[in-house]
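Quick one: structure for this chain?
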Amino acid sequence: MQDELTPAIHQYLTNAAASQFAQQPVEIVAHWEGSENLLWRVTCRGTEAVAKLFLDAGQARSRRQFDAHTLFAPAGLAPVPLWYDHNPEGLARQVNVYRWVEGTAHTDAQGASVELAQAVASIHTGDPSAVQRFSPHPFNLDFFWRIEQTSMAAVTAWLEQAGLQPVAAPYAQLCSAAAQIVDQALPLWASAPATPVHGDLRLEHAIVGPRGVCFVDWEMAGLGDPALEIAQFLQRSRTLAGVDTLAIWVDAYLAAADLPGLEQRIAAYNCLLPLHATTYLLLGLHQHAAATAEFQEALPFLTETLAASLALAAASLQFDLTATPQELAQQVAAAVSSGG
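Got it. Here's what it folds into:
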């Protein structure tokens, strides 16, 4: 698909009225595919840039990214935007073009540095009035929990309908334990307004270059909950960086981000996110039950993942399961295999 579109991208860059490279020589150096976008690295008279074509919900995503680049590029936290085109000539979806960022993307513990923590804090303590849109993620605990309750109700209904009472009972108890944490933590958000957030904070989205840390992939940026963003980052990074490294990272972040009740708010999400992951897995297993041979082949791995997720959720909520996570996961897998 990307090879087929490359000539169209070159045609757009060299001829479109909106292109700053129009009527100039443009060389396409490389191309790669993101999760919901296609990207080309190009050069034009000494300017190195990235042309990003959005594939899904492109108008909202591309506009969020352009706005975030515009806001944070002066501080070196985002690439320098060149232009945004919501109706590009000869192309079906929106395009963002921005300057190429030299540096190294960290995907291991080395990336969880104090410098990175301070850069994230700079985003979260930015001026909220300068941000025009909310991130699509929950902007406080109440919003987060309302979404979770809907998902948990769907999982509970399926487990009971499938005759999985031995799984439904401990799952309901985990949900009850989570609800107690939410009730206790909600007052922390009373004086905590939404702040600018990156929207998809990951080690691989942080590039360390000559000017320091620069973040890419701002498609989900906007106003949001910094505590949720940090807790999600910690959850994603725990297999890449050790506990001690992440603890140092959090300390550096908290020292730089002076926001109300931030440490306690992160701690609340740290308790809740493992159950969120378990719920997400159970919903996925239900929706794809016995769907394809490929799914059935992946079921042993999914069962192992569910067992690990259940164990982590129980530990985070300080709850003792009556059966082992492996036993519970195997019961779910058996029901899924039979089309339950």
